[in-house]
Amino acid sequence: MTSLLTDINSNTSLTISGSKDGSVHWKESVEFVKFSPSFATVPMAATGGMDNKLVIWDLQHSTPRLLGNCVHTFHGHLDAVQAISVSTNTDFIVSVSVDYTACV
């Protein structure tokens, strides 16, 4: 596994790592991973990568090597997603892409 970025949730023992080896759910490289804030009611994660998508995952029932249920896939970037940020109140997610756009 080629780990590109890792995020650790401070309230759980969960760790997410990006990969480009196709070992989990993606055919393209995962470039960025981000947990929801530790105080969020439902543990969530967001991933973005070379497939130009932002994917939101429900981690409520995640298990080792299985990220959880895909809640929503956002399409809108014309190139790879390079960064993700979650607002303090968890109402918004911003993704930034190589295509020089930010999507909320």
UniProtKB/TrEMBL annotation:
SUPFAM superfamilies: WD40 repeat-like
Alphabetized SMART domains for the sequence: WD40
The keyword Repeat is assigned to this record: yes
UniProt entry keywords in alphabetical sequence: Repeat, WD repeat
Keyword Repeat: yes
Superkingdom of the source species: Eukaryota
Pfam families: WD40 (PF00400)
Ranges that cross the membrane: none
PANTHER family, A to Z: ANGIO-ASSOCIATED MIGRATORY CELL PROTEIN, MITOCHONDRIAL DIVISION PROTEIN 1-RELATED
Name the UniProt record assigns to this protein: Uncharacterized protein
Source taxonomy: Eukaryota, Viridiplantae, Streptophyta, Embryophyta, Tracheophyta
